[in-house]
């Protein structure tokens, strides 16, 4: 199954968080699950803060790219367009807010679930929650802004 | 000169963002500059979002660890204690909010400057700004919480 990120044009597929062509990066893959979006990601042993727990900056990164991907997919859907149809829709982050609800255990696969809160012109607000073994450990919100066509050209 | 992070006890020096013992991580180093704190960091070529610009998740990570380090140093200072004196003071992130003011060019060394907004019991609020070639490109705020003594033990 193709992930949202598989539809990004080649020149916009180098993001450290979600670019399929960034071999050093996280290469997250995001999918629809009904009205929600879902990404699964297993941190590396070195993605730690305090031993035994996941680094908060990684969680912020996962929330960030999960939400910008969700913003793109939701906008295609709202416009009744197939993902990947021209012109490409790609979003950058205007603001990222994360609350760390409890320590996230390092080891298990994490699930990030997203929900679109608002689509308004070129701005999409997406909320995401990180779960470890079914427990919500972090929650974030991203204000995603549609990228100017000239950006990355 | 010793950075704030050089005073962290060994078991708390593994953080991906600021742990001197995490060989895969960013190993940021933070210092006082008068009443402000400063970290300098040069992203790797693969820390990209759109080609030519720095990945926002990295900027969030730098702000995060810069601010928790600042929270520790400011608390030692407020208590009139030398950094590294026992018991160790170490902070975790309760909330992280970042506004991306403009694209951050990838290449030049970045400067992150921090300022303590509030010290209240075990909670310290720190504001940080990222500069590239003298231009502020991102601004963030961290609510840092003093780590329970049992954490990471």
UniProtKB/TrEMBL annotation, chains A, B:
InterPro entries per the UniProt record, alphabetical: HotDog_dom_sf (IPR029069), THEM4/THEM5_acyl-CoA_thioest (IPR052365), Thioestr_dom (IPR006683)
EC class: hydrolase
UniProt-listed SUPFAM superfamilies: Thioesterase/thiol ester dehydrase-isomerase (SSF54637)
Annotated Thioesterase domain residues: 52-135
Reaction it catalyzes: hexadecanoyl-CoA + H2O = hexadecanoate + CoA + H(+); decanoyl-CoA + H2O = decanoate + CoA + H(+); dodecanoyl-CoA + H2O = dodecanoate + CoA + H(+); (5Z,8Z,11Z,14Z)-eicosatetraenoyl-CoA + H2O = (5Z,8Z,11Z,14Z)-eicosatetraenoate + CoA + H(+)
GO term, biological process aspect, one: fatty acid metabolic process
Location(s) in or outside the cell: Cell projection, Ruffle membrane; Cytoplasm; Membrane
Entry GO MF terms: thiolester hydrolase activity
Name used for this protein in its record: Acyl-coenzyme A thioesterase THEM4
């Amino acid at each position: 199954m193709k992930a949202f990120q598989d539809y990004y044009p080649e020149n916009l597929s180098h993001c450290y968080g979600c670019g399929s062509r960034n071999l050093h990066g996280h290469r997250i893959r995001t999918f629809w699950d009904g009205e929600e979006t879902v990404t699964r990601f297993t941190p590396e042993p070195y993605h730690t803060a305090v031993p035994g727990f996941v680094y908060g900056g990684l969680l912020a990164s996962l929330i960030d790219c999960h939400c910008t991907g969700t913003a793109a997919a939701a906008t295609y859907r709202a416009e009744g367009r197939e993902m990947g149809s021209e012109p490409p829709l790609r979003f950058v982050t205007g603001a990222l807010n994360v609350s760390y609800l409890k320590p996230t255990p390092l080891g298990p696969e994490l699930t990030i679930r997203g929900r679109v809160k608002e689509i308004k012109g070129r701005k999409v607000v997406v909320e995401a929650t990180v779960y470890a073994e079914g427990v919500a450990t972090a929650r974030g919100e991203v204000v995603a802004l549609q990228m100017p066509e000239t950006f990355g050209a």
